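Structure (tokenized):
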């Protein structure tokens, strides 16, 4: 079983390195569907897993000047309070009950379906927003905080949303910003959000630290190899295949 977890970590790391899609949209459903980990434990463990892996990205993007810290703060104004309130909500319910398990699976499925759409149509949505001037510049700070609120709820409940979904929404809100700045800022925001949400789950007792360590053994070399292969493999087709997998898994979770 430990080898299976290491292999899963490697595959997720490889795909993250190839496509840039956050590990949450891949690791949590794998843990739930293939390893039958309880949803709350899969989410909690994956959140701390994401905060560790993405913290490396802050240094990389920071050195390249790809982080807009004002944008990160606006997202955090919404996401961090939303994460705290979502954790308090989870504390009030028994997350081991069938109803709670079904609710987490449902929202995880919804998040995966939305993420798959954002992965498939990210470029088209960003181009449409830029061409049609959908967002008035004076509304962008407020929309960014609202986006943070949505991400804080989704990420804390399902561990999904901080990556592909956040980047796609930011590209629509800020169509004139360079994609490198959007991605760098999203990664910088994801680290404190997943850390806070992960610590919240740790306070609930829904983090498996042994599992966390085993997953990291596989994912770290996977991310390194995927990052180096990304220049040699047609990312477009990998992204389409990934989106189709996410749709299938999302529908399975929603209608299970």
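Design, position by position:
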């Amino acid at each position: 079983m430990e080898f299976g977890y290491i292999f899963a970590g490697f595959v997720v790391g490889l795909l993250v390195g190839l496509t840039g899609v956050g590990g949450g949209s891949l690791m949590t459903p794998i843990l739930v569907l293939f390893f039958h980990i309880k949803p709350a434990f899969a989410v909690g463990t994956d959140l701390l897993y994401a905060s560790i892996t993405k913290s490396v990205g802050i240094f990389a993007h920071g050195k390249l000047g790809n982080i807009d810290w004002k944008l990160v703060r606006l997202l955090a104004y919404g996401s961090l309070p939303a994460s705290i309130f979502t954790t308090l909500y989870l504390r009030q319910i028994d997350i081991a009950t069938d109803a709670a398990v079904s609710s987490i699976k449902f929202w995880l499925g919804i998040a995966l379906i939305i993420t798959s759409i954002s992965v498939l149509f990210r470029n088209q949505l960003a181009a449409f927003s830029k061409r049609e001037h959908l967002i008035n510049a004076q509304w962008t700070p407020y929309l960014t905080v609202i986006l943070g609120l949505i991400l804080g709820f989704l990420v804390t409940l399902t561990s999904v949303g901080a990556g592909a979904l956040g980047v796609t929404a930011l590209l629509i809100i800020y169509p004139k910003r360079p994609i490198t700045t959007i991605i760098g800022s999203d990664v910088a925001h994801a680290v404190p959000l997943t850390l806070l949400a992960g610590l919240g789950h740790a306070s609930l007792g829904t983090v498996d630290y042994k599992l966390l360590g085993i997953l990291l053994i596989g994912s770290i070399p996977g991310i390194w190899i995927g990052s180096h292969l990304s220049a040699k493999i047609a990312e477009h087709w990998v992204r389409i295949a990934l989106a189709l997998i996410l749709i299938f898994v999302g529908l399975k979770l929603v209608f299970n």
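Reviewer-requested clarification: Residues 21 and 66 are 17 Å apart (CA to CA). Residues 2-254 form one domain.
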